[in-house]
Amino acid sequence: RAAHRGRRTEQSLINKPNVSSQYHKEIQKRRTFGIISHPDAGKTTLTEKLLLFGGAIQMAGAVKSRKTAVHATSDWMAIERERGISVTTSVMKFNYRDYEINLLDTPGHQDFSEDTYRVLTAVDSALMVIDSAKGVEAQTTKLMEVCRMRNTPIITFINKLDRDGMEPLDILADIEEKLQIECVPLSWPIGMGKGFKGVYDLHRRQITLFTPSQDTRPEDCIVVQDLADPMLDELVGVFAANKLREDIELLQGAANPFEYEHYLKAGQTPVFFGSAINNFGVRELLDAFVELSPPPGPRATTTRMVDPSEESFSGFTFKIQANMDPAHRDRIAFFRICSGKFTRGMKVMHHRLGKEISLSNATVFMAQERSHVDEAYPGDIIGIHNHGTIKIGDTFTDKEELKFTGIPNFAPEHFRRVVLKNPLKMKQLQKGLLQMAEEGAVQVFRPIVGNDYILGAVGVLQFEVTMTRLKDEYGVDATYEPLSYTLARWVSSDNKQQLREFEKKHQFNLALDAEGHLSYLAEGSWRLAHTQELFPDIVFHKTRESV
Ligand code: G4P
């Protein structure tokens, strides 16, 4: 909520006199977003089309090749190592019209992980892609939950209209019910599958006709001021025309009008229909996206809101990418600029360590002229090379001591017990796990009873990556044992008496995380619900902020 109150404030701050107008223009033209979707809904295809519109054509192959190449961990690592692909596709920067767009990748297939969630803490808005045949799917629901935490505004694209799918009204009802967000269609499909004729733009009252495998041209747009016009029957056929008339009549009675403020507060999502693979409806989506989605807004810190128009430099780390090269143990920390201008070589304070560092080797992510850019602005992401000194959530500024909030750990859903093959390597194991926990690669728990290490992850690939890195970087040979836990919750309570009773009763399900916070590991949501009932004063948290 704070973020949205902030966003309104930002509007009133736009004409602050002490802000150089060029600086302010740079902020206003930035759009930093991520795509939320379930695997196979069309995120990669849509990303490629967006990049094509942005003129970053050579990137398109990279996006696809990364996805198809991710078969197994070994492949994935080899690819990371050889080509650093995940670094280049982690942030895809492109220009469209007057806008500078940062598309942050939200890995979704085998490499679905806590990073996927955390990327969403660094965006200003999101694009939701839904497969028209499947409606809302599990991963979309999870990502939506993360968007809810900061009320991130969302624009929806219903994809694959060239295939038979659910009735458009049913899709909207599905989204409203499962994601608890009001849908406002700004376009409407005419038919679907083999009978897909195009979309009707409800705002401009024009029809764009669909031709399979062919990009839409401006002349394909036909203005239809009155749906009763017999021209409509000629254009799309009597059946489709009548169906459209019926649908629109229904919509006019039932659908909510679009309210910009409501969208900014994530209460409403504008909905577009199309087919990414046919590049149909994508330009319309992108046009609406740049116009509607918000530029970088204020961000909360532990002490105050930081407005992007402030000229002092500030930002936070939301993702750390290990290089995987045993010869150089360097990592890239992905850093979102929240205020001020980045210039190469500038000195900033790394507040957690109380150290000044020089940002001379930082990478500014650009789809094309990556190495030539020496400046970046709020909303942009820079990559900072380091040797394991940077942690997720670390704040850097050029003077004031600040700590950005809203970059939490997310409750893992998969768990493994680490079994060390050589007990003499215990020290290295501890060091490696602590380091990787700080990077957000995996979460580490120590059960209250016993001496085990339990790893928790949001996606199972995290386990394989952790094991390979333990061996390569720390010389630790270990294996995993499966565990039956399926969820973790951080616990707290003001009722000390109840907390003690809870700790006693559930000692075998309790563990301390890498920062020593008490966590409850449960075998299923039913178990959690039961425990919650028994201990009503205990709060079970799905996320935990680092300190
Ligand atoms: P993802 O990143 O969300 O996982 O999805 P991706 O874009 O890879 O798309 C998943 C599959 O859906 C791909 O087919 C892709 O070609 C297809 N697809 C994407 N958009 C559309 C669309 O508008 N209409 C139809 N009919 N299909 C679409 P695939 O067979 O898995 O991969 P490929 O062999 O085509 O690359």
Which tags fit this structure?
seven-stranded mixed sheet; 17 helices; 32 strands; disordered N terminus; binds guanosine-5',3'-tetraphosphate; RF3_dom_3_sf; GTPase activity; nucleotide-binding; RF3_C
What is the fold's blueprint, element by element?
Elements: H1 2-13, H2 21-28, E1 30-37, H3 43-53, H4 57-69, H5 73-83, H6 85-90, E2 91-96, E3 99-104, H7 114-119, E4 125-131, H8 138-149, E5 154-159, H9 168-179, E6 182-185, E7 187-190, E8 198-201, E9 206-209, E10 221-223, H10 231-236, H11 238-254, H12 260-264, E11 268-273, H13 282-292, E12 299-300, E13 305-306, E14 314-322, E15 331-339, E16 342-343, E17 347-350, E18 355-358, E19 363-364, E20 375-376, E21 381-386, E22 395-397, E23 408-410, E24 414-420, H14 426-438, E25 443-447, E26 454-457, H15 461-474, E27 478-482, E28 487-492, H16 496-505, E29 510-513, E30 518-522, H17 525-534, E31 539-541, E32 543-545
Parallel strand pairs: 1-3, 1-4, 4-5, 5-11, 6-11
Antiparallel strand pairs: 2-3, 7-8, 8-9, 9-10, 12-13, 14-15, 14-22, 15-21, 16-20, 17-18, 17-22, 19-21, 23-32, 24-26, 24-27, 25-26, 25-29, 28-30, 28-31, 29-30
Helix pairs in contact: 3-4, 14-15
Bound molecules: guanosine-5',3'-tetraphosphate.
Residues 37, 39-45, 67, 159-160, 162-163, 275-278 line the site of guanosine-5',3'-tetraphosphate.
